[in-house]
Design a protein that fits this description.
Helices cover about 70% and strands about 5% of the residues. The protein contains five helices and two strands, in the order H-E-H-H-H-E-H.
Length: about 130
């Protein structure tokens, strides 16, 4: 259930980022490119982004732990931009998906996606029940 909620939030965040034309981030929908195909493409790209972030992002964070300490965590912006760019590279192989025009705009888009994920994650996170 958490993964599905995470994918939906990621899809929404990706959609918001694609609405900002200066970021040079866009989505190529499945053929024929109608609204339903765009939503399905956003969900598929969000699922791939969540998997890339979970698997490869975790490995990078473990390996680059000294850099995280050295830069006080600012390297995470570059890592998130790289993971977004990697997701774009993976989905472009299929002929649909995410396109990122420039790496640094991808870093800014990843920051915006992270902020949206943090806000919606805080709102939709299941609350723990208090014991009496």
């Amino acid at each position: 259930m958490r993964f599905i909620i995470r994918v939906v939030i990621n899809a929404f965040a990706l959609w918001v980022v694609t609405l900002i034309p200066a970021l040079q981030v866009s989505i190529r929908a499945f053929a024929p490119g109608e609204t339903l195909q765009l939503v399905l493409t956003l969900l598929a790209v969000a699922a791939i982004f969540a998997l890339v972030n979970t698997i490869i992002g975790t490995v990078i964070k473990i390996v680059a732990f000294p850099l995280y300490l050295l830069t006080f965590g600012l390297i995470s912006f570059i890592v998130n931009g790289f993971l977004l760019w990697l997701t774009a590279a993976i989905t472009s192989v299929f002929g649909w998906g995410l396109t990122v025009g420039d790496f640094w705009w991808g870093v800014l888009a990843a920051i915006i996606i992270s902020v949206i994920n943090a806000v919606f994650g805080a709102i939709l996170r299941p609350q723990k029940k208090k014991r009496r």
